[in-house]
Write a structure and sequence with these properties.
Elements: E1 4-9, H1 14-23, H2 25-28, E2 32-35, H3 37-47, E3 51-53, H4 61-70, E4 76-80, H5 90-102, E5 107-108, H6 111-119, H7 121-124
Parallel strand pairs: 1-2, 1-4, 2-3, 4-5
Helix pairs in contact: 1-3, 4-5
Length: about 140
């Protein structure tokens, strides 16, 4: 079952996300990949896989991915964010992470959590359905 996965990284974390993605290319290749602007371009080049690119995060890309969550169209978010360097669009970042909690979407904020999510037997199990809250 193909999932839609969002891959996002702040500037100082882009090399980490690229390195992580390359090490999990075979798993990522099975799914539809989406990303914010610059990150998407770097991933397309590094992985030689199709990556749908939204706007850059500060220009609304985080909100576009948030809309996917609200519409039930995103299965997981891999967002390597940089907690030590505040971003000009920090409210958008917090809103994106908040939406993952509201809609029970798995989110990885660093390499360790990304490893755990993508290596989970439930990640590829078509019988597993995450619980979507009913508001």
């Amino acid at each position: 079952m193909q999932k839609t996965l969002a891959l996002v990284a702040h500037d100082h974390k882009k090399p980490d996300l690229i390195r992580w993605s390359k090490s999990h290319k075979a798993q990522l290749a099975k799914h539809k990949l989406v990303a914010t602007g610059t990150t998407g371009g770097l991933l397309t080049e590094a992985l030689d896989l199709p990556v749908f690119r939204y706007q850059s995060g500060p220009l609304g890309g985080d909100q576009q991915i948030g809309a996917l969550i609200a519409e039930g169209k995103l299965d997981a978010l891999f967002f390597f964010w940089d907690p030590l360097n505040p971003a000009p669009h920090d409210p958008d970042v917090k809103a994106l992470l908040r939406l993952c909690s509201v809609w029970n979407v798995p989110v990885a904020c660093n390499e360790s959590s990304a490893d755990l999510i993508i290596s989970s037997p439930r990640f590829e199990d078509p019988a597993y359905q995450r619980k979507v809250p009913s508001y």
